[in-house]
Amino acid sequence: MKLACREIKPEIGAEVLADKQALLTGEHAADIRELLEQRGVLVFPKVDFTEQELIAFTRTLGTFAPDRGPDEVTPISIDPSGGTTADYTRASFYWHFDGYMNEVPILGSILCAKVLSATGGQTEFCNTYAAYEALPEERKRQLEGLQAVHALAGAQRAVDPEPSYETFQQWLKIRRNTLPLVWKHRSGRKSLVIGNTAVGVVDMDPMDGLEVLVWLRDWATQKRFRYSHEWSLGDAVLWDNTGTLHRVRPYPADSGRLMIRTKLAGEEPFA
Predict the structure, then answer these.
(1) What is the mean predicted confidence (pLDDT) over 49-61?
(2) Which range (56-70, 74-88, 189-203) has the least confidence?
């Protein structure tokens, strides 16, 4: 049976019109994988997965990569009671992708809405495949062969711009990585590798490198490449971590907003 879907925007996003049972059987898995690479973000409206159903659905699409136990989802919240994890989660208010420190980044993530904030909390995505493909040829030539250093400090300084030295040392314990600004995928397509973890361009004056990174972020997140998801309870959203950036719009820390997340293990190294 062909997967029914509806395009959200010309450059990004599709709404998948399939019932929960069909999704859990895996009968649409191949079509979902193909659609994900094409559209970057897939919305499953009000599918209302339980934790175990979300894990089961994830496994139909690839290898489940748990952050916690082998059969546990990851709760996503900025509630202060969450301690350090909640502090790090606040960096998700800024454009990023997940797993910059890994040679093989995660393929994708699935987020499911359990408790919503009365204000804010939309999740935004941009398509870095489409953004690269639309670049002026002169800019593509400029980016050829360039690499950027990615580090946790880049993300966390957005939240804490004047950290103590002790805090900064904690950030430095997380592995840094030097990645190409343009990822040449096995499929033949190319995507931009940018976001708030990028702290500088290799072999460029710091300010010149920052200018490149700011320009690229501004270009990739412009309206034509961007989709903002307004959550309803039970929505699930799957995104391609290798070809998108994402961020959450600010919301009150005491709102009770709670998402659960699963991740698909990576299948392709940066190149």
Answers:
(1) 98
(2) 74-88
What pLDDT is recorded for position 182?
A: 98
Closest C-alpha to 202, from 148, 152, 143? 148
How many angstroms separate the CA atoms of 74 and 24, rounded? 19
Q: What would the two tokens of residue 108 be?
A: 């994708």
β-pairing, 182-184 vs 190-192, is antiparallel
Phi then psi for residue 25, to 5 deg, are -75, -20
Alpha carbon distance 89, 257 (integer Å): 13
Summarize pLDDT for 155-201 with one digit per residue, the tens.
999 999 999 999 999 999 999 999 999 999 999 999 999 999 999 99
Dihedral sign from CA coordinates of 55, 261, 102, 144? positive
Backbone angles phi, psi at 190, to 5 degrees: -130, 145
Distance CA 76, CA 255 (A): 13
Q: How confident is the model at residue 80 (pLDDT cuts 50, 70, 90)?
A: confident
Confidence of residue 88 (pLDDT cuts 50, 70, 90): confident
* Residue at token pair 């950030």: 171
What lies within 8 Å, CB to CB, of 83 at 6+ separation is none
Tokens encoding 259: 């998402």
Answer whether 180's CB lies under 8 Å from 270's CB: yes
CATH topology classification for 5-264: Double-stranded beta-helix (3.60.130)
- Mark residue 77 as left, alpha or beta (left: phi above 0; alpha: psi -120 to 50; beta: remaining): beta
Angle at which helix 29-39 crosses helix 51-61, to 10 degrees, equals 80
Burial of 2 (0-12, 13-18, 19+ CB in 10 A): exposed
Tokens found for residue 29 = 């898995």
